[in-house]
Automatic annotation (TrEMBL):
This is PCDA5 protein. It comes from Eolophus roseicapilla (Galah cockatoo). One of its GO terms (cellular component) is plasma membrane. It is found in: Cell membrane. It is a single-pass type I membrane protein. PROSITE patterns: CADHERIN_1, CADHERIN_2. Potential calcium-dependent cell-adhesion protein. May be involved in the establishment and maintenance of specific neuronal connections in the brain. Keywords: Calcium, Cell adhesion, Cell membrane, Glycoprotein, Membrane, Repeat, Signal, Transmembrane, Transmembrane helix. The gene is Pcdha5. One of its GO terms (molecular function) is calcium ion binding.
Length: 663
């Protein structure tokens, strides 16, 4: 059964095991008896957390360790919380009750943390134990009936009813038991003399003291009491109090006086001289921590006190006279250790999700933190801060969470050294710092960028195939594949042909090469676009326009348009014999497909049958007579004209003009 809202719990008893759980104030609580076998199902954790079938494994449902063995684990198959190793309540919690283990359960996608409280219930698996197997007592023969002698009781590592002890004594006409319970002194066990002793009749009495616990069935422990009956000294020293209480701060310097004890003895002489001793039942730990002056009764601190290790001591003191036989009086000194702020807070990172993608939303959990302080009260309360304060912050949940507080940009800052400071509320406070390196991972959020929108290229015609034209380059501030740029030509046409038939581009570095020779006379300029694309997913791109200008080369010789010859014959011009000086014989007309100076033409006579008769205008190509014709001039003449351009080197063409003198 599960109840929400009000903090309640439900018990589910299955056979001998008591397995209970409840969602309490948003938390899950189970209980399991100690010593449960490995594999015992503690609770259906995945179902109680609202996870569907298959989700526990898909979302990596798991326990987060805080340094103490929990002895339970999450089954990957079923999502149930099961016992993984021996559960010993006494090892886990000692005498503390209830014995609750605080566990943290983690699920991913999205990352969430749940608090699980597991209560380990006690079973009666520990019998009462006495400090010794045999206890020797010296009792004066003159002791009066009703005299009481303190006995050390047994201890039981269990708790609750399993640790409630009762005592019984083997039958004896001289002795009985008395148990006193007070709020201040707790439970005290006494051996009571009921009938006067006679040492001469029975010098030694042997009795068995039995302790029974309250378990079902009960367990027992025994100790043998060996009582020696002594003569003479009949007054034992007496303390004025049965219990003395002392308060002392932890960390107090060894040698500090705690209390001065005093006991009186009504006897006289040596029988009234008292010395002070620790009871023989006092543990070695107490003797290492405290000392007592036998003669003065001064009890001093000998070792170091640590509130977190032990917050109180109950020390049995014996005042023994020097009579023969000696008699003793007893008291108890209760030392209460007071806490001081001597423990620094501890910070654990229970989960760290790095690197953090730069497009992480505000509030994304980066790390789960667990903070504790062994001190008590304000000394054990801890406040945490984070530096730098942006772009990360702390969110207080059951386990503190380090989350993003602002948007990230890897291109500006690729990682952060995060310092988490935990300070307790003691006076003065003690602080602890934990440093985390949070790496920011790249996402493809930047397209490639060219330095300009256009790029101009000048190339001479008649270039060789595969000639390098230019290189375009784009930069991308992203990392790895996101920043690796490749280049392609965007589809287009040039003079009706596909761009790819003219050019090629290097995918890796943007170098552009000619796949054919350009002809200035056919194509003087064109443009195309190069696209730079990164390798991210999805990829981002940018484009640049490349303008190509083709420059002319002197690759065309002048073409003679007039006069023309047919079938290899020479063109003939007829000149009357009566022609005067500067008579226009003919005009040589030529053209050059090149451009600029490569197309500037000049005309020259390369050969003439009569060099005195004709001259040629170098710019117009007009062939004229240099004088009037004479009757003695030959009837036929031949003039070879050279037409030359101004290229470097120049190209030329020739034409032969036949001239016939006629009446």
């Amino acid at each position: 059964v599960m109840e929400m809202g009000v903090c309640r719990s439900a018990l589910l008893r299955v056979l001998v095991l008591q397995l209970a759980w409840a969602l309490v104030c948003g938390q899950v609580r189970y209980s399991v008896p100690e010593e449960a076998k490995a594999g015992t199902v503690v609770g259906r954790l995945a179902q109680d957390l609202g996870l569907e079938a298959g989700e526990p494994e898909a979302r990596r449902l798991r326990l987060v360790s805080q340094g103490r063995r929990a002895s339970v684990e999450v089954s990957e198959a079923s999502g149930a919380l099961v016992v993984s190793s021996r559960l010993d309540r006494e090892e886990l919690c000692g005498k503390s009750a209830p014995c609750s283990l605080r566990l943290e359960v983690l699920v991913e996608r999205p990352l969430r943390v749940f608090h699980v409280e597991l209560e380990v219930t006690d079973i009666n698996d520990n019998a009462p134990v006495f400090h010794v197997k045999e206890e020797a007592l010296n009792i004066a023969e003159l002791s009066l009936p009703g005299s009481r002698f303190p006995l050390e009781g047994a201890s039981d590592a269990d708790v609750g009813a399993n640790a409630q002890l009762s005592y019984s004594l083997s039958p004896s006409e001289h002795f009985g038991l008395d148990i006193q319970k007070t709020e201040e002194e707790g439970e005290s066990l006494f051996l009571v003399l009921r009938k006067p002793l006679d040492r001469e009749t029975m010098p030694i009495h042997r009795l068995v003291l039995t302790a029974n616990d309250g378990g079902r069935p009960p367990l027992t422990g025994t100790v043998e009491l060996v009582i020696s009956v002594l003569d003479a000294n009949d007054n034992a020293p007496q303390f004025n109090q049965s219990v003395y209480k002392v308060k002392v701060l932890e960390g107090t310097e060894p040698g500090t006086l705690l209390i001065t004890l005093s006991a009186t003895d009504l006897d006289e002489g040596i029988s009234s001289d008292v010395m002070y001793l620790f009871s023989k039942h006092v543990t070695a730990e107490v003797k290492e921590t405290f000392s007592i002056d036998e003669n003065k009764g001064e009890m001093r601190l000998r070792g170091n006190l640590d509130y977190e290790e032990k917050d109180s001591y109950e020390i049995a003191i014996e005042a023994r006279d020097k009579g023969s036989p000696p008699l003793s009086g007893h008291c108890k000194v209760v030392v209460e250790v007071l806490d001081v702020n001597d423990n620094a807070p501890e910070v654990w990172v229970t989960s760290l999700s790095v690197p953090v993608p730069e497009d992480a939303a505000v509030g994304t959990v980066v790390a789960l933190l667990s903070v504790s302080d062994r001190d008590s009260g304000a000394n054990g309360r801890v406040r945490c801060t984070v530096w730098p304060s942006a772009p990360f912050g702390l969110v207080s949940t059951f386990a503190g969470s380090l989350v993003t507080s602002e948007l990230l940009d890897r291109e500006l800052i690729n990682g952060y050294n995060i310092t988490i400071t935990a300070a307790d509320l003691g006076s003065p406070p003690i602080t602890t710092q934990k440093t985390l390196w949070v790496q920011i991972s790249d996402v493809n959020d930047n397209p490639p960028v060219f330095s300009a929108d256009t790029f101009d290229v000048f190339v001479e015609e008649n270039n060789p195939l595969g000639a390098f034209l230019c290189q375009v380059s784009a930069s991308d501030p992203d990392m790895g594949e996101n920043g690796r740029v490749s280049y392609i030509l965007r589809n287009s046409t040039i003079a009706g042909s596909a761009l790819a038939s003219f050019l090629s581009v290097s995918l890796a570095n943007g170098s552009i090469y000619a796949k054919r020779a350009f002809d200035f006379e056919q194509l003087r300029s064109f443009y195309f676009q190069v696209e730079a694309k990164d390798s991210g997913s999805p990829s981002l791109s940018a484009a640049i326009t490349v303008n190509v200008y083709i420059s002319d080369q002197n690759d065309n010789a002048p073409a003679i348009l007039y006069p023309t010859s047919q079938n290899g014959s020479i063109a003939v011009e007829v000149v009357p014999r009566l022609a005067d000086e500067d008579y226009l014989v003919t005009k040589v007309v030529a053209d050059d497909e090149d451009n600029a100076q490569n197309a500037w033409l000049s005309y020259h006579i390369a050969h003439s049958s009569d060099s005195t008769l004709f001259h040629l205008a170098p710019h117009s190509g007009e062939l004229r007579t240099t004088r009037s014709l004479r009757s003695t001039d030959f009837l036929k003449h031949k003039v070879v004209v050279v037409v030359r351009d101004h290229g470097d080197p120049p190209l030329s063409s020739t034409v032969t003009v036949g001239i016939l003198l006629a009446d």
